[in-house]
Amino acid sequence: MPAQPFLPSIMWENTIRNALLEDLGIGGDLTTQALASPDCTMRAAFRARQDGVVAGLEGMRLAFTLLDPNTTVSYSTTDGTIVCAGDTLAYVEGKAAVVLGGERTALNILSHLSGIASVTRQIVDKVSHTKARVCCTRKTLPGLRAFQKYAVKAGGGHNHRYRLDDAILIKDNHLALCNGSITEALQKARAYAGHLVCIELEVDTLAQLEEALSCSVANTYLLDNMSIPELRQAVAMVSGRAVVEASGGITPDTAQEIAETGVDVLSMGWLTHSVKALDIGLDVEIA
Question: Structural domains in the chain?
Fold first, then answer.
């Protein structure tokens, strides 16, 4: 299992601040202003409504402390922890205007990231008897990449590229720049790349993989939408000379069989772009 994930508060602040500003508008929380006195205080508990894995507690905390640094947030668990329906994740105590003003932003970030961590853990557990790593991709929601990738790590997964400048990944649209020639693309990539830059090539067929292997350039091969027999054959062809990544059509139901072909990585874009949020609620009581 990877080390406990961590993102310093400063990396969360701008995103949470912007989310609060988006929600509060220019008039603030009219409902709470109408119903509560300025000195009214509240204590509330974040509780899981279903089983899952927690991620995003720091973002949740900032949704309140950015509104009022005197707000108290105490954790009952940590990111990366498996929780059951009914478990308390954290408590928040402070002015009612702060607790209710930050409630939706806090729940949005905590529920969304916990959903990612939860489904990641499901797949990690399914393939734990293999060497395959579970990875997300760059298919993230704009502005949330660092946090979504953090949530994948909280669920026991790993990250693919964070950005375009992390590594060279040659896909079919890039091959079009070289008239479809894998050899030319790999040679140009190696001539351009620094000695620390990884080169990955996406291949759709075993014939493409055979051509690529003859160049001895790529560090990683991305096997796109290959069948189980093709994946097994591809792993045998690479024979440990590079990292082998499977992508395309991987679901919780198919992940185990794909991992058992011997690939090193399972990459899934849906881990970040279309995962269902974990059901988490905020139970409030007047302090």
Answer: 9-120+276-285 (3.90.1170.20), 125-274 (3.20.20.70)
